[in-house]
Design goal:
Layout (H helix, E strand, L loop, with lengths): L4 H21 L12 H20 L2 H23 L3 H19 L8 H22 L4 H21 L2 H11 L5 E6 L2 E6 H18 L1 H24 L8 H19 L10 H26 L1
Antiparallel strand pairs: 1-2
Helix pairs in contact: 1-5, 1-8, 1-9, 2-6, 2-7, 3-4, 3-5, 5-8, 6-10, 8-9, 8-10, 9-10
Length: 298
């Protein structure tokens, strides 16, 4: 798989920072689904396994229509809190709808049609990442999801030709859920699943630990992306999934977060109440010794 490093770096930077910017300014309308929990991770794992199979067997037209609806829903969610005037929001959504319809019907927007598709997919990634973070997703959830995706991608990419066939199919399909990175030596692709992991870890850290730690997490995930790009560029004839670097980075950030939250041992600090009692006992003993000395003198 050939990569274009500059485009990959620019796209990765947008993916890790755009959700942070949006999450710091606006709150998405919460769907009536409750709080994000472990059952959602199980459901996501099932979707990850079934979606590629369905994408290969379903018709291109049906897949394009489904993807168009998902993109419009994601863009609508992003516009609702960020643009207060309803007519402006509807006008922007209508323009996006025209562009999405044109791409779905097989009419790309000129030479840079891939850029428009990538921006639309970026809106989907930002919408999903911010929604999950604001609904209670944690780094624990992401660590389990990343661990599963590492195993799945290694099997589907390196041990079988399944993932390669899927990327080839999605790249030729209108509104296929894959980022396109054209270059002089070929075209590289970034799956939406990898992009979601890349975006989720920083924005969840921001939601639970603050912006300062979120920026550190964003930097770590960005470096993990660059590491995956470097490995892919060094072995152009070998399909290498990005999750081999994004997955361990996610798990390491989870472990570091757990270590920071771990309470200090009881021996490291003396609780206030026992310390007060020890001081009081010391004062009492000193007072008694003074009394004994005075009595002995008398």
């Amino acid at each position: 798989m050939l990569w274009t490093p500059l485009l990959a770096a620019a796209l990765g930077l947008l993916i890790v920072t755009a959700p942070l910017f949006y999450n710091s300014r606006w709150t998405l309308p919460a769907p009536p689904l409750g709080v994000f929990d472990a059952s959602d991770i199980i459901l996501l794992a099932v979707v990850v396994v079934l979606y590629p199979v369905l994408a290969l067997v379903e018709s291109v037209t049906v897949a394009a229509v489904i993807n168009a609806v998902l993109i419009l829903a994601a863009v609508g969610d992003l516009l609702h809190p960020s643009i207060r005037r309803r007519w402006i929001r509807l006008a922007v959504l209508a323009a996006v709808g025209v562009a999405v319809t044109g791409i779905a019907l097989g009419h790309p927007a000129g030479t840079y049609g891939w850029l428009l598709t990538d921006l639309l997919l970026l809106a989907v990634v930002v919408s999903v990442a911010v929604a999950w973070a604001q609904q209670g997703a944690t780094l624990t959830h992401m660590a389990f999801l990343a661990g599963f995706l590492v195993l799945y991608d290694v099997v589907a990419t390196t041990l079988t030709a399944f993932m390669g066939d899927l990327l080839d199919h999605l790249s030729t399909m209108p509104l296929g859920f894959v980022f396109t990175l054209p270059g002089a030596d070929g075209t590289a692709y970034l799956g939406v699943g990898d992009a979601l992991i890349l975006a989720l870890v920083p924005v969840i850290t921001q939601q639970t630990r603050g912006t300062r730690r979120a920026l550190a997490a964003a930097g770590a995930m960005f470096l993990a992306l660059l590491g995956g790009v470097a490995i892919s560029a060094a072995a152009p004839g070998i399909p290498i999934p990005l999750m081999i670097t994004l997955g361990p980075a996610t798990i390491c950030l989870y472990v570091l977060d757990r270590r920071r939250r771990r309470p200090r041992p009881a021996s490291a600090t003396t609780p206030p109440f026992p310390r007060t009692m020890l001081l009081l006992a010391h004062d009492v003993s000193c007072a008694r010794s003074n009394n004994v000395r005075e009595n002995s003198r008398g």
